[in-house]
Amino acid sequence: MKGKAVLIRYLVAASGFVWRQSRPLSFEMSLGQSALANLVQMTPNYWRLTPKNRERLQAMARFQTNACFEILAMTKR
């Protein structure tokens, strides 16, 4: 993770911003069938699904997963 942070800070500096801080954000999500279908349709993977897997997706009543993000705080130079 340290190497990744150094790369991000370099890219931020090169784009005219000053790195301030970063904070990880992660939480568990429980998606109903409609929300899951909407989420999957926003990805390129949806268009590669076989009809059988699309049926499986539609049959899922609830989907549990983790969401992980890194919040970056920067200011313009």
Structural class by helix and strand composition = alpha+beta
The rounded Rg comes to 18 Å
Let me know the largest β-sheet: 2 strands, antiparallel
Number of helices: 3
Q: Provide the low-confidence segments as ranges.
A: none
Order of helices and strands: HEHHE
Counting DSSP E segments of at least 2 residues, the number of strands comes to: 2
Portion in beta strands: 35-45%
Strand order within the widest sheet?
Answer: 1-2
Number of domains: 1
Q: What general outline do the C-alpha atoms trace?
A: elongated
Textual characterization of the structure:
Strands 1-2 form a two-stranded antiparallel sheet. It has three helices and two strands; from the N terminus they run αβααβ. The chain has helices spanning 2-14, 33-41, 51-59; strands spanning 17-32, 62-76. It is of the alpha+beta class. It has one domain (2-76). The longest helix has 13 residues, at 2-14. The chain is elongated.
Any descriptors?
two-stranded antiparallel sheet; alpha+beta; 77 residues; 3 helices
What does this entry show, briefly?
This protein has 77 residues and is an alpha+beta fold. It has one domain (2-76).
SSE blueprint and pairings:
Elements: H1 2-14, E1 17-32, H2 33-41, H3 51-59, E2 62-76
Antiparallel strand pairs: 1-2
